[in-house]
Design goal:
Layout (H helix, E strand, L loop, with lengths): L2 H16 L3 H8 L2 H13 L3 H8 L5 H14 L2 H13 L11 H6 L4 H10 L2 H4 L9 H7 L3 H8 L16 H12 L2 H17 L11 H6 L7 H7 L2 H9 L16 H7 L3 H9 L14 H6 L6 H12 L16 H11 L4 H16 L8 H4 L12 H11 L18
């Protein structure tokens, strides 16, 4: 068929569909190019009735987006309402990249459309994620659409705790966008998300910060998972994870550090245990390529006992990857050997890693090493507090905290 005859057939099919031909309309809906051609034709000729008929059908998301723009241009509210209602109730209505209509709207300055969408949309649609793990709120933040993000945040059904494939939350993205472009509107968005997290939090000692006075009275209540892990606030860490307020693999925007890395850096052994119970991913790397194990190896001799205990905990996580390299092209074992040259006291850590390497080569799953291997440092190097000894033994015998039964000890789950 020549281009001329093909164009003639296309025009005839579109004309028949526009004039009420049911069979022609069905054929048209089966071909994206034909829908687009008919949509362009209808727009040029001001045929809003035909566009309304298209809006009622379950067609491609990008074409729905175009229909909305045409409807807005002509001020046709019925078309707008029809498209939004359909897209707002169908979780399967996404494009090849997994993007929903709300994501497309959130990426641009369509504040009014987003507001209307929220009124008709189901919660599941509002929190859909695309193939990169991004939600509509994240798309708004990625594109610097602060006003759109604020509108989304006004709806309590919009989840602020999701993480994308790079383990970044909407708050992280907003903060990074602000740091790079000095966009103070996005800084405000980051703070609004943070407020949402705090207002949702239910700490086990029965205080909830919902206003500035309560935050002043209970300053710990305003801690994020990263901050609580760094400070060793075990109850807050536990509450955040059990309530599903933040993902266990939350990252710090600039450094890429995880809560697990923060806890390790400050030798908060009980927090490390708690994070591992909630399936913290030990194989994540920060911007320098450093893993949790590498962080543990770098703990100084004053905390030698904690260093050995934490290294042991990490090595006994199923799936721990000892082949990962940092930006200096060194593995955790390389780092331990380098440290041993200047610090003989780290020999215990080197041996623990070597045993784990040996077991992995034999295909044997890691198991908890005996306490004498972990705590064989001299008494002078031990921590003053005995709580870590108790917590290590309890980790071996106790069941995971509520809400993590059945989870593997390795993962990057998204709450």
């Amino acid at each position: 068929m020549t281009k001329f005859s093909e164009s003639f057939v296309t025009r005839k099919l579109i004309n028949d569909a526009r004039n009420g031909g049911k069979e022609s309309f069905k054929k048209l809906l089966q071909n994206k190019k034909l829908i687009m051609a008919s949509l362009v034709w209808a727009e040029e000729n001001g045929d809003l009735d035909f566009i309304l008929e298209l809006a009622k059908e379950n067609i491609y998301v990008d074409l729905q987006y175009k229909i909305l723009r045409v409807a807005k241009k002509y001020g046709h509210e019925e078309i707008v309402d029809s498209v939004l209602k359909r897209a707002g109730t169908d979780v399967n209505l996404v494009d090849e990249d997994g993007k929903s209509l709300l994501m497309l709207l959130a990426s641009e300055n369509h504040e009014e459309m987003v507001g209307k969408f929220l009124k008709v949309a189901q919660k599941e649609v509002l929190n859909l994620v695309d193939k990169s793990g991004c939600t509509a709120l994240m798309h708004a933040c990625l594109n610097g659409r602060a006003e759109v993000a604020k509108i989304l945040l006004e709806d309590d059904r919009v989840d602020v705790g999701n993480m994308n494939s790079n383990y970044l939350t909407a708050q992280d993205i907003a903060q990074i966008f602000n740091e790079r472009g000095k966009n103070f509107a996005m800084q405000e968005v980051a703070e609004l998300i943070r407020e949402r997290v705090f207002c949702k939090r239910k700490v086990s000692n029965n205080f909830i910060a919902t206003n500035h006075e309560e935050k002043k009275t209970n300053p710990l209540n305003s801690l994020s998972l990263l901050e609580a892990s760094e400070k060793g606030e075990l109850n807050i860490v536990k509450s955040i994870l059990q309530e599903g307020i933040e993902n266990v693999n939350s990252r710090e925007g600039r450094s890429g550090s995880t809560a697990l890395m923060k806890a390790i850096k400050n030798c908060k052994i009980e927090v490390v245990e708690m994070l591992l119970h909630f399936s913290a991913d030990v194989n994540l790397q920060d911007t320098s390529g450093t893993t949790a194990l590498m962080k543990a190896i770098k703990i100084n001799n004053k905390q030698a006992r904690a260093r050995s205990a934490i290294v042991n905990l990490i090595l006994n996580v199923d799936g721990v990857d000892l082949g990962l390299k940092n930006n200096d092209n060194k593995t955790a074992y390389d780092i331990a050997l380098d440290a041993k040259r200047e610090n003989p006291k780290i020999q215990n850590v080197v041996e623990l890693i070597e045993k784990c390497i040996g077991k992995q080569k034999k295909g044997v799953a890691p198991s908890i090493l005996v306490a004498t291997e972990v705590l064989s440092e001299s008494p002078s190097s031990l921590e003053k507090s005995p709580s870590s000894v108790t917590s290590l033994s309890s980790l071996r015998s106790s069941s995971p905290p509520k809400g993590v039964e059945g989870k593997s000890s390795q993962g990057g789950s998204r709450n």
